[in-house]
Design a protein that fits this description.
alpha+beta; Phosphorylase Kinase, domain 1; D-amino Acid Aminotransferase, Chain A, domain 1; six-stranded antiparallel β-sheet; five-stranded antiparallel β-sheet; about 35% strand; binds guanosine-5'-monophosphate; phosphoribosylaminoimidazolesuccinocarboxamide synthase activity
Length: about 230
């Protein structure tokens, strides 16, 4: 597969065209941003770790029946993926309350929800990815009713699988963000699943092993990301 011109550069990844219309190459960068780009930095080898972590998780999800954009791990920083059109709706699922929801709803940090909470956000940096509901998504033509139904079904299944998967590695899956894409008439899981997009707490100590270390200047960001990868490889 030949890598052609760059199609898009995001905050953490670059997307390239290839000589096949239905394939893209995604390159993971070390750049780190938070608070919608207000905080900028870089974490040594973050791209290498996230590319590996996301490849491992997407391969497992695919094997368990979730359709994804992932095709293959190419090298330390690159993956071959299906050329999707991203649905401009970010999906967040929360098992424990922390982050933006505790400020929005005034609930206790670390509260274990009775059942997982699913939220939709409009993927729009200019407006800080505002929270929306399904009526907004349909009315604004962001996604259809049947697309939203599939997205919800896959998201809850992914959450159930990943809670168990991470528990086995001594990690609590607090919350995470997913993005889906359209590909040949189907909705498939896209983007990445990594310590950049998930909150992961050590089961024993509750130590944060994710991007909150960067967001909150907790130190040892690189070490925490590497520790997550190491646990996944066991
Ligand atoms: P919160 O809304 O509490 O800030 O984030 C909830 C979860 O979604 C966290 O795991 C967070 O990492 C993830 N998340 C939400 N929006 C984004 C985003 O724009 N980029 C990334 N990397 N993760 C996000």
């Amino acid at each position: 597969m030949e890598k052609l011109e760059m199609l898009y550069e995001g905050k953490a990844k670059k997307v390239y065209k290839t000589d096949k219309d239905d394939r893209y190459i995604v390159e993971y960068k070390d750049d780190a941003t938070a608070f919608n780009g207000l905080k900028k930095g870089s974490v040594h080898d973050k791209g290498v770790v996230n590319n590996k972590v996301s490849s491992i998780i997407f391969a497992i999800l695919e094997e368990k029946g979730i359709p994804t954009h992932f095709i293959s791990y190419l090298n330390e920083r690159e993956q071959l993926v299906k050329a999707v059109e991203i649905v401009p709706v970010e999906v967040i699922i929360r098992n424990l309350a922390t982050g933006s929801i505790i400020k929005r709803l005034g609930i206790e940090d670390g509260l274990v929800f009775k059942e997982p909470v699913l939220e939709f956000c409009y993927k729009n940096d200019d407006f800080n990815d505002p929270i929306i509901n399904e009526y907004h998504a349909k009315a604004m033509n962001l996604a259809t009713e049947s697309e939203l139904a599939k997205i919800k079904e896959y998201t809850f299944k992914i959450n159930d699988m990943l809670i168990e998967f991470f528990k086995d590695k001594g990690l609590r899956l607090v919350d995470f963000k997913l993005e889906f894409g359209r590909y040949k008439g189907d909705i498939i899981l896209s983007d990445e699943i990594s310590p950049d997009t998930c909150r992961l707490w050590d089961i024993e100590t509750n130590e944060k092993m994710d991007k909150d270390r960067f967001r909150k200047d907790l130190g040892n960001v690189e070490e925490a990301y590497k520790e997550v990868l190491q646990r996944l490889n066991i």
